[in-house]
Protein 1
Amino acid sequence: MPNIFQTVPLIHFVYLSALLFCIGVVGVLIRRNAIIIFMSIELMLNSVNLLLVAFSAYRQDPPGQIFVFFIMAVAAAEVAVGLAIIIMIYRNIRTVDINELSRLKG
Amino acid sequence: MNLSGVLIPFVPLLGFIINGLGFPKVSKRWAAWIGCGSVFISFLIASVLFIQSLTGSFESTTISLFDWIVAGNINVGFSFFIDHLTLIMLMIVTGVGFLIHVYSVGYMHDDEGFGKFFSYMNLFIFFMLVLVMGANFVMMFIGWEGVGLCSYLLIGFWWKNREYSAAANKAFIMNRIGDLGFILGIFLMFITFGSSDFDKVFAGSSAFATNDHVMVAITLLLFIGAIGKSAQIPLYTWLPDAMAGPTPVSALIHAATMVTAGVYMVARSNILYSIAPISLEVVTVVGLATAVLSALIAITQSDIKKVLAYSTVSQLGYMFVAEGSSAYSSGIFHLMTHAFFKALLFLGAGSVIHALHHEQNLRKMGGLRKLLPVTFITMFAATLAISGFPPFAGFFSKDEILVATYEKSPAVFWILAATSVLTAAYMFRLLFLTFYGEYRGGHHQHEHIHESPRVMTVPLMILAVLSTLGGFLGLPALFGDTHWLSHYLEPVFAANTRLTEHSESSLLEIMIVVLTVIVIAVIWWWCNEKYVKKKVAPAIVEDQLPLWYKLSYNKFYVDEIYDRVIIKPLEWMGDFFYGKFEANVIDGAVNGLGRMTVWLSGQLRKIQTGNIGFYVLSMVIGIVLLLIYGLSKMNLF
Amino acid sequence: MNLLISLTALGVVAMFGGILKFRSMVMPLSVLGLIGASLLGVYAWNTNQSFLNDMMRMDNYAIAFSIVCMAGTLLTILFFHFFHSENEIHYAEAVALMLFAVAGCAVMVSFTNLLMLFLGIEILSLSLYVLAGLRKKDLLSNESSLKYFLMGAFSTGFLLFGIALLYGATGSFATTQIAYQLGIAGMNGMAAMGLLLLMIGLLFKVAAVPFQFWTPDVYQGAPTIVTAFMATVGKVAAFAAFLRLFQLCFAPSKEGYQLVIGTVAAITMLAGNIMAIYQSSTKRMLAYSSIAHAGYMLIAVMTLNASSNGSILFYSVAYTLASISSFLIVMVVQQNRNNDTADDFNGLGKTNPWIAFALAVSMLSLSGIPATAGFFGKFYVFSSAVSDGFIWVVAVAVISSFISIYYYFRPVIAAYSKQTHDPVMTMPAGTQALLILLSLLTILLGILPGFIAGII
């Protein structure tokens, strides 16, 4: 079966995932809500996944895709920890706005 | 088998720790046992190694304990090196050191700092052993600094006397000047050879041509260190002042061991010096000048310890002349015999001082021959030895040096021979003023004078035997062909030693012997006439010889010249820089910088706003800047 | 590998210790376990074995740094045991998290594949996120945890993007393959971008300027014992991984990026030390000091020569010893005087002479005064940089070291030259003995540095 991936030039994948990554970064920069920031970070990770899969497919080289599985697993763990932290904060101050969290400074 | 050698320095260190931590809880009796015992154990181990080396079952070895400083390509190991030269030094340091420790038990008996004294002495022995056993120049330097420290502590042992602590400071500062040379030499060695290990440096030096600039520089810098430690011109003035310390200290540190470290160092680096004959000439000239000058000073001094101190300086000059003439084994030989008879002289002087309740002025002594018989006889033997009277130890070693210099330069020989005559003169003067004639102190004191206790006289007797017989280790060609010591040291010096095999040397030796005997006889007669028969007080006799006497008595005004030329201008500059420059310029600048830093700190901390959004924004800006900078650096942008 | 397995098992056991109510066994078990794991490491010394299809290699470098991390963890757990109050509900869980974190460290320092690097960093970081928020009701602890988590996850994105680009450029995650491919093809744009992004991710983990923002806030907000753990074990592991990655993959092309790291190092040292001056809280001051120390250690990463490994190892040990004991002293002062400004150290020399001694030694070591381990740490790092011609970096380092003396000496001066009417400080049994032991080790390494520096 011909590799459909290879019908699109590799560099397009690179551009696409770089774009997705930048959207994630901008999301982290402009949003205040901790959960949305967290989602933006997930977007960054997923752009990496896309990039890895693309490289893997072009090179016919499985390790890239295996790496993606590990990123997914770690991201899931991160979600668990991150949401727990956010919930802990919500219980204490009834908001997840990061601008409310600036007692530690100087 | 040589691992036991590692123990040699550490046993005295243990003694230092016990006595030092335990003071003043450890009783005097225990402090004495620990102090002397630890040195004696080292002496026993050294003796075993020494006997092994005689029977041939010994090979020179390097014992590496661990890597001490590792930085880049530089690796300094904490390691010891034992060969025949080290063994000779070990025997001297531990053997003479042990005798002096035993003597100190009697001498320091009534001192309240008894335990402290022994802990310092043990620490000194430890560092001295590190100095002679180190397998690289850095280890040697550690020992070198350590013995300097102990010397400082012990000169100022009676620190409540301001003059004594000033003497300690003087010794310390003068030694720093020398140490600076030494440490620069070591740096240069690292740069040149990439190591300071003896084997690597000596092996690497063979690649250099004779009188190569680098080799001359290294050897001269090392010699500056030796000048400071071994009290040669121009840094010799600290040693006479160092006599402020207790007399056993003078015997151990400022006569037998520490001051000979410079001689040992030059002998150890003989391979380097043999590549730099220019440096050897410097060594000869400095040694010769020091030998003459201090002998001239010694002849008029009235303090018994000062005479001996200048005599030490002079004898050290002898050793350097020997080394400068490439007669390294003769230098070490003289180092050894000197350790015996000079330690004995100091200890004898100490015994006299002890008996006279800390009276050191020769003019107030006299007639002690019958009161202090053991001290008298042993000191008499030492005086004969240092004067080069056959067959006492000094005769052989000094004779060897004279023969070696004759081959190199007759002028040096004649000056040295004249100095030798001077040596006999001032030593017999000392002997006469102390022991002959009538007692010149008060009658009240006279009744209390008695011989020192056994614990002090036994070390005197042992040293007297050594001073008498020690010379047979190096029988010169006159009395037979074998020269045991130079044969023993052959592995260390083989390639660089001139062997004395000339026919004319025998004649020369006989001539020197005759000359010495005549001089001693003349001095004897002269002193007898002046001091014993005519009963002239020494001060009056000496005042009849005004000009040269004044010069000599005032040590050629060297201290005063140093004071005017170096110390006063420095003090003035210090005043200027401290009073004017520091107060206004430096303080202002430093305070200003400090205030600026604090202000900057106050401003910079404001970027830690505590807001995550701001943090992330700053980080992204940082990332972009770093990417641009990095890509442009890698020429990809 | 046995070391890693036993560490993980130990973490699981400690975790069940909290659930199954055998909390009193947790401390002895983990101490014994850590000692055992270290012995396994010593046993594997010089074996140089590869594991997991060549994704990890337990070479001497890995073992040495694992042992340093485990020793740091051991000390932290001991002190945590001394100081935790009986009603602290998450004691066993916290110990378990520390053990998981140190397992992550062991992975980070032994990787030979970028996947393992990533996993190690994440295992360590996830544990630290939770540890920072250990006090659930304490708002500062909450804030610290969230800040650490959000910024840590953000930086992980860059790290991963870098790994992906590097994979695209070289076709492999294995360090040997990457080095080989880069050697053949040279640095192309994609590889350079990947390298820089990886570097940025790691610079965040070691808290170099401009990625230092999280450090002071997180260190201040987290419980002090966790701060001590993060500042020592976490930082040492991050540096070991940083250096290992660059030694294994990028050493031949170091001319390209050396200057970048050098610049970051210089700015980090200066900024860390200058910002530390204004801090009144000693704990926060120590956080800035840890930023400055990251700058010093970056110098060794920059020079990247044969002596870098040894000098970073020595620096890590010296820094760990001094940091743990200074954080501990801060904790003692906080408990007794409810604050940790320099004034709270007043008269410590009179009331608790041994604690004051330990304070003085650790501060002297942190500022790099001779006869302490910190001096030789700096000496090794600086001298290798000088021999590679980076004199300007060393000049900046020396200047910033001078600045640091100002704030390091503040508590020491307060302890010895000021008076107090406060009572003698009390502390759990054993604290004082351990602090003295740490001080003596610091002095010992300051006199005989060869024991450690030459080991790898």
Note: Chain B is about 75% helix and 5% strand.
Protein 2
Amino acid sequence: MPDASPVITVADVQHLAGLARIALEPAEIEHLAGELNVIVDSVKKVQEVATPDVPATSHPIPLVNVLRPDVVGEVLTQEQVLSGAPDAFDGRFRVPAILGEEQ
Amino acid sequence: MSDLTRFTAAELAEHLAAGDVSSVEATRAHLDRIAEVEPDVHAFLHVSGEAALRRAAELDRLRAAGEAPSPLAGVPVAIKDVLCTSDMPSTAGSRILEGWVPPYDATPVARLRAAGLVPLGKTNMDEFAMGSSTEYSAYGATHNPWDLTRIPGGSGGGSAAAVAAYESPVALGSDTGGSIRQPAAVTGTVGVKPTYGGVSRYGSIALASSLDQVGPVSRTVLDAALIHDVIGGHDPHDATSLTDTWPSMAEAARRGRTEGSLAGIRVGVVHELNGSGFQAGVRQRFGEALQRMAEAGAEIVEVAAPHFEYAISAYYLILPAEASSNLAKYDAIRFGLRVDPGRSTTEQVMALSREQGFGPEVKRRVILGTYALSAGYYDAYYGSAQQVRTLVQRDFTAAFEQADVLVSPSAPTTAFPLGEKVDDPLAMYLNDVTTIPANLAGVPGMSLPIGLAPEDGLPVGLQLMAPAREDARLYRVGATVEALLEAEWGAPLLSRAPKLGRPVPAPGFGTEPDGGTL
């Protein structure tokens, strides 16, 4: 039986890892491509019963949006917010360069 | 003095109230037990000895002054490392959060503290709760107290093992696809996944937001109910938290135990989860439990849930999709690991930090989720999975028209050997076949022990499921089943677990990735 699902290639995994912001070694990418094909081949089973007449459910219990008055609530202090940061300076998160040399 | 670690939380509460046991004594006994068995079990990632004893002393003073904040004041508790604690590291089993101490407590933790429970420490788990064995913890696997060469279940294997090994009477867990119920099943303990939204998730490190639910882990149905009553109820900090007023789960459990609850109740055996293809001893104990329930007056009916067979596929699309989004917060800027080789951009630093900070299962699921959500595939995968979710919900609705509670074995097998499935993601995923439908539909589920499989002498669990918001029904029925079985056994199942803390053969088998840490 022909396999209808698109095969996830090494290049696809490389691209997805880029989107997910995870650096990967070439060997890891190759291994993952194999595993992902096995998993996707199994989970695509959902398509068998997902006919157009079935609505999608995003949330198990129906909920409505929650609003509150626009007043300061229980919030963390600036010091608390920065307490776990790898680097902070002058009350702010300090980050590496935003733009590379090419940009 | 009898061994204080053998008391249930309810029993300890009675002794504390009577004044013949102090919280300091109870806390010290559990810390001693932790020191004795942790080298073998490795249920904890962090033990908070000094702070726990200080808090226990404070609670003893409050009680002496007549100001005990609740009947459970002074009872020790263990907390799954997925929950934020302002005085203990909270890593969710990941290197990317190693050593991170959050600036606030998760609401369930805050409520336990306010009720006077004494946190003993943080329990081990699969990284970000992705797994069914704790083998994906970045800090080494937990070992099943029934057989140290086997898995304690997952992701909450640490909490289940901690209560099974008498390191704590009760614990907190979280259940996204079975992470409370499956560990309960394989360790001979009790675990409850409440109705979605029944317990606040504020401060619970998110895995899949439409599935995650925090709940109790214990050795008895009543203890789970007591903890549920403390942690449950609306929390304005969690927009998905239900505003319902809940009945007392402890009251339901007490009535279920003393009055019985099975006469005339319709117990639905889910045809698709009735045990065909499951381990023989699991099927046998499940059949016997049904027999006991029928003898106690329950009407056993078979119900069909034709779309449950698609649930696991839908789950392994929805979960990775939501996880890939939730885990985007680990950006090496606001908290957690930063790997900066210098002269790198923020984006490169983020990618390098996530490479080093995430384990293989997390990378697998984040990339799978990114794939399922990407343009061109969204409708085929994530969209279809959400449609299956509707079909699973409809199956539950139809089944609950024919039955008051639904039952199945909690897991297809007893505890499997450490290392057996760690390199086969799909085999690991199939382990969740029984527990996933409840998460997709948001309904509450409980696992409680129903005996040992004859072929391996390991615990088997019964899963009970009730309609959304009917958590009390689980406690009422669960407590009756527990009482019936204990009357037959003459003692709780855990009394048959092997002794720990004696010279035991080394776990070996090369199954512990990095030797484990205390």
Note: The helical segments of chain A are 10-19, 26-43, 78-82.
